[in-house]
User: What shape does this take?
Amino acid sequence: MTWRPVGLTRDVPAGRVMRAWVDGQDAVVWRSTRGVLSAWDNRCPHRGMALSHGFVRGEDLACLYHGWHYGAEGGVCSLIPSHPDLTPPDTIKTRAFQSAESDGVIWVRLEGSPDLAPPAIAPGLDPLRSFEIRAREGDIAHGAAAKPFEPAILSLLFNPIAHDRTLVTVLIDAQATSDQRKLASRWCEDVRREVEA
Ligand code: FES
Assistant: This one.
């Protein structure tokens, strides 16, 4: 399985929960209070509620529905609020995926050798933003190539999240000025408008 870029490190600070898509899999990506990043199946093992609606409680993610807690280390259920004295069996756990961070980008993959790190981004580039476009990767690449951005080097990473939707992560020359970054952000919106039109 391939590592997929699902967002920027700065968009998922401690205590934040985010929904992501990885090779057609609905996933929840979240960061505990101490900073542990996790990526799981976006489905509560209890009754199937989307865990991306849940809340971070210290080192646990709590489901919105009945409040069951799942621990950042391994996704095992750590608390069932309606039975607070019960130690939940280890078999109640979320389905965990591999997650990693590299140069400010969060990567997730569904399976594969834990030794294989996510791809490093090219030296000298910084993550600029991550956003969704209602189009396929090929159409976005074509639209971006037809509208060259002159002020600074840009590079795009793609994560196909549905047959007609793609998450685009934009990297920019680390030396780019704040004005160039603003221009690049506008360029992203222009490309999106034109590709989606
Ligand atoms: S569905 Fe998540 S705690 Fe019940």
Summary: Residues 44, 46-47, 49, 63, 65-68 surround FE2/S2 (inorganic) cluster (CB under 6 Å). The chain has two domains: 4-109, 125-196. Residues 100 and 117 are 8 Å apart (CA to CA). The radius of gyration is 19 Å.
